Amino acid sequence: MPFERVSRRRVLQGTATVAFAGALPTRAMAKDTVVGFIYVGSRDDYGYNQAHAQGAAALKKLTGIKVVEEEKVPETNAVEKTMESMINLDGATLIFPTSFGYYSPQMIRMATKYPKLRFEHCGGLWTDKDPKNAGSYFGYIDEAQHVSGIVAGYTTKTGKLGFVAAKPIPQVLRNINAFTMGAKLANPNVALQVIFTGDWSMPVKEAEATNSLIDQGADIITCHVDGPKTVVENASRRGAMVCGYHVNQATLAPKAYLTGAEWNWESLYPRFVKMFTAGETIPNFYRGGLKEGLVKVSPYGSLVSEAARKHADDIKAKLTAGSYVIFKGPIIDNKGKTVIAPGVARGQTDPELEKMDYLVSGVVGATS
Amino acid sequence: MKAEKQPSSSAARAALDRLGDAAEYVIIPASALVGSLVLFGIFVALFNNNPLDLYFYMYQGAFGTWFSWQNTLTRSAPLILTALCTALPAQLGMVIIGGEGALLVGALAATAAALAMPSAPPFVVQIAMALAGFASGGLWIALAGGLRHYRGVNETISSLLLVYIALAILNQLVEGPMRDPTSLNKPSTREIGAANMIGTIPGTDIHWGFAFGIVAAALAYVLIYHTVFGFAARIAGGNVRAAKVVGLSVGPLILVTCFLAGGAAGLAGMVEVAAVQGRTNANLAVGYGFTGILVSFLARHNPLALIPVAILVGGIGASGGLLQRRLGLPDASVFVLQGIIFVTVLMSETLYGRFRLLARKAA
């Protein structure tokens, strides 16, 4: 590593401040495309961040690609500095800031400042007003939740399901509703109790919520929090079954794990990076579900019956073919109000779904 | 002759003593710092990393380039202000650890002030934001001071608990009355508007919070060491009863000091809104207030020493990313280093007065 040795000596001479250009080992040595990944939590959280880290790991197998990663970066200007550090010190030309709170103003500011580099954000809503070298992508994971819900509806013995959720925001409500509607396909009388913990990562509250749901008779627990580890482990310890979220948590609860809704970033990221290195333009606004391979359903556990598998696979096949709409009227919320009128089918791209503020009938709980 | 020389030689001795004292205040913390870096190097070597690589990347990430310097200074900006929240009451012998709460309240008030005056010229809005941030943060910590003075409530506990109350209020307002209806998946207030942002120091991308911090620290230094108020505060900090006996009104001293301290942290909240986020949401609660406690203790609560210590802590934060990316160290390694530094510096406090080499020679 001659470059490093030279630069270290320069440091000792105290001239490194000005002589930095020559001291960039990565940029100077390789013509690799450097791709940066930024995570808000730790990359082995069995959840949201691990899903992205698995996607990044898929890139490491490609030749000519170098991946740099940074975890636990807060959603402040610290993420701007991380992006700039990856650009200036690592030579990154494509950056994935993967947390929702990184989009505006931080990533937009960096995309404006570095117009030749590419920024791809998970979850943001890119519009025409945003820089052209920025983009946003996200998956319709409610499709996988719907299939997971079918499995839960067949498997529950008490007819009661439990859902540990972070915040009553549209994304989360959509998952709760899709899961509940899936369960009701299997068992129309099923009830799902939801508890909101108030934040994305609150292990103590998540454990309390899990216990309280089981105490109230729920025998299958699922969740939408950043790291489902606490929920999955607690539920299986209490003898309940679980449906996972974000990544496959079967290793945490081999027996109790029924199935789960997973991200499939290891399918998307290599596609994006190949477009990038080939000089093609990555779409500025990209969304997709099972059909586009952005989400997937975990393999079924041993407790899942044949009938459940058949029904779930059937709906999964229809969703993959694009011939099935989850949010199809009439849909009544849990206060008795019709939220989607009979005959109205809200497909995945319908902007109304992005504003969801209700819980469908069958859910026990309130959004505020 | 002798009689004549006596005073001058004792003056020289006093001067040398002072020099020796001053040297102590530099040499001891500096050795503690070097010692903790060595310890951290050993820790990293245990995970099969070359400590020399570690030091090189730490230097490169924190101070090695102009970009790294800006990264470091930007990170240190909020820390100087939040550290004052602990350093000022410390002169009175109080341990306030609730800077985070004052920061959140200050951010909320600053945002509310900006949103309340949509058509005012930016300069007026910015002044109003700063005043609102300062006053609300100040009142927040003055509350802890008042509880201590009038009701005998331990100010450390109460200021910490006030952090959680501040956070709850912030979440309630941001997800309720102050929520921007278009902030669907990230509940936030409406934006204060690009025109009202205070921007960066020209020629850099360091925001003005850094300059505010330096000015505030300098003012605090003058206040503590060169005014009657500061002298009285230090007397009361030394011995409350003695202060009362000589007729100092301790209550106002506590309230005003706590107000100024909280005001500094509230100003940090205002800067986070006006220079970084442009609105208030849960992103603001990232622990600047808690890191400020560390900075204040490392600086021995000396307002001027807060500046280099904040830059050092900012630099550790700035280099943390590079350690993750180049050496594959987990994010927590930065906290390990911070912890080692904290413990080493606190332990080194016992060394003061033991190595009066300069003074001894003079005698």
Task: Note down, in words, how this protein is organized.
The complex is a heterodimer of chains A (368) and B (363). With 368 residues, chain A is an alpha/beta fold. Chain A has two domains: 27-139, Response regulator (Rossmann fold); 143-263 and 301-364, Response regulator (Rossmann fold), CATH 3.40.50.2300. Chain A has eleven helices and 17 strands. Chain B is mostly helical. Residues 1-5 of chain B have low confidence and may be disordered. Chain B is globular. In chain B, helix 1 (2-45) crosses helix 2 (51-62), helix 4 (99-116) crosses helix 11 (288-298) and helix 8 (228-238) crosses helix 10 (250-277). Chains A and B meet through helix 1, strand 2 and helix 4 of A and helix 2, helix 3, helix 10 and helix 12 of B.
CATH topology of the largest domain in chain A: Rossmann fold
- Counting helices, strands and paired strands, the structural category of chain A is alpha/beta
Give the proportion of residues in helices of chain B: over 70%
Strand content of chain B: under 5%
Give the overall form of chain A. globular
Q: Under the CATH scheme, which architecture of the largest domain in chain A would be assigned? A: 3-Layer(aba) Sandwich
Give the overall average pLDDT of chain B. 89
Could you spell the SSE succession of chain A in H and E letters? HHEHEHEHEEHEHEHEHEEHEEHEEEEE
In the CATH hierarchy, what is the architecture of the largest domain in chain B at level 2?
Answer: Orthogonal Bundle
